Amino acid sequence: MPERLGAPGPRRDPPAPAGRPEPPLLPATEMFVNRLRKNLRHLGRWARRSGVSCYRLYDADLPDYAVAIDLYEGWAHVQEYAPPAQIDPEQAARRLRDVLAVVPPALGIAPERTVLKVRRRQKGAAQYERRAEIGKFHEVREGGLIFLVNLTDYLDTGLFLDHRPTRGLIRGLAPEARFLNLFAYTGTATVHAAAGGAAATMTVDMSGVYLEWARKNLARNGFREGARHRLVQADCLAWLDARPADRFDLIFLDPPTFSNSKRMGGRTFDVQRDHPALLSAAARLLAPGGTLLFSTNSRQFRLDRDSLPDLSIEDITPSTIPLDFQRNPRIHTCWKIRRRNG
C-alpha cells in the first residue's frame, strides 16, 4: 500500500465509450460487494461499540479492486491505487466504474456523497497542493471532539484515521503537560492534548493553510489561540535548528517521508537520512521525564538506534494500529522516546 504521498484529484467515474451501453457488472464485482457488506457488518459493530464514526472500511482486500474506502459519517472517500503499468488501462477503468456503481447502494450512501481520488507517489510540494476548489468542509467526531475534514480539495482529508489510537495516547499523557506538535498538519493531536488537560500547547507547521485549519479545529472544541495555545508557522527543521528556549513534557513528531518545499530554502528532508538529527534536536526540548512520540509512514524506514545512544526508544507500533487498519499493519510505525539522562 502506498505511503501518504500521491496526487489525488476528485473526479467523476470514467465514461463509457460514446454510443455504447454500459455492459453488465463483472462477475468478480459481486465478490467485491459481498466483501463490502461483510466488512460493514463487522467493522460497523466495532465502530458503534467504540464510538468511532470515521474509519477504513476496505483496503484493497481483493486484488482486482485495489481501492481504499474510508467512511466519514455518511460519506464514502474512495482512493484508487494507480494500477501497475502491465494492467490493461481499459480493464482498470472498467473496474473503477464498477466500484463507483456499487459502492453507494452497497453502503447505503448517496452517489453524490461518494468522492474519488487517485493516489500516485509524489514528492515535495506536490503532495501538499490543493487539488480542487470546492472548499466544502464537514464536521466529524472523534472521542467527543469535533474536527473539520475536506474530502475533495487536498491529498488527505485533514484527519489521519490510522493515528486515532496515537491521538488517544496523547490525550491520556496530556494532563498538566506542556505539549509540542511538530509537522502538526491540521492540529488534531493538539486538540486531543488540549482536551486531555495540557497546561499549554504549541503547534508548528510550515503551511499557513494547515495552521488556519488547526486554529478552526481548536476553536470548534472551545480552545482559543493565545498564550496557552500557540500556533507557529515555521519550517520545523529550521525552528529546531534555532534551539528554542521552551521545554516540553510531551512532543509529537510525525514528519513527512520526503520534502523539498521551496519554503525550506533549498534544503531537502528525507526521514531515513535525517531522522537521527531530527530526533536528537527534538529530544533536546524535552523537560526532565518528558516523552517524545515519533511516527513515520515510510514503509522502508529503519530506525538507526546506534546513532541515538542518549535516547531510550520503545517501539509501540502494535498498540497504535487500530482494528480498521490491521490488514495493513505497516501503515505507520511509532516509538515512545525518552532521554536516558532523565
Write the layout of secondary structure elements.
Elements: H1 27-50, E1 54-59, E2 67-72, E3 76-81, H2 89-107, E4 114-119, E5 138-142, E6 145-149, H3 164-173, E7 178-182, H4 188-195, E8 200-205, H5 208-220, E9 229-233, H6 236-241, E10 248-253, E11 258-259, E12 269-270, H7 271-283, E13 286-296, E14 311-315, H8 317-320, E15 333-339
Parallel strand pairs: 3-4, 7-8, 7-10, 8-9, 10-13
Antiparallel strand pairs: 1-2, 2-3, 5-6, 11-12, 13-15, 14-15
Name the CATH homologous superfamily of the largest domain. Vaccinia Virus protein VP39
Which sequence of SSEs, written as H and E, runs from N to C?
Answer: HEEEHEEEHEHEHEHEEEHEEHE
Instruction: Tally the helices.
Output: 8
The counted number of beta strands is 15
Shape: globular
Q: Approximately how much beta-strand content do the residues carry?
A: 15-25%
SS-derived structural category: alpha/beta
Q: Would you tell me the overall average pLDDT?
A: 89
The CATH C-level name of the largest domain is Alpha Beta
* Spans where pLDDT lies below 50 across 5 or more residues: 1-21, 122-129
How many separate domains?
2
CATH architecture of the largest domain: 3-Layer(aba) Sandwich
Largest pleated sheet? 7 strands, mixed
Radius of gyration: 21 Å
Taking strands numbered 1, 2, ... along the chain, how are they ordered across the largest sheet? 9-8-7-10-13-15-14
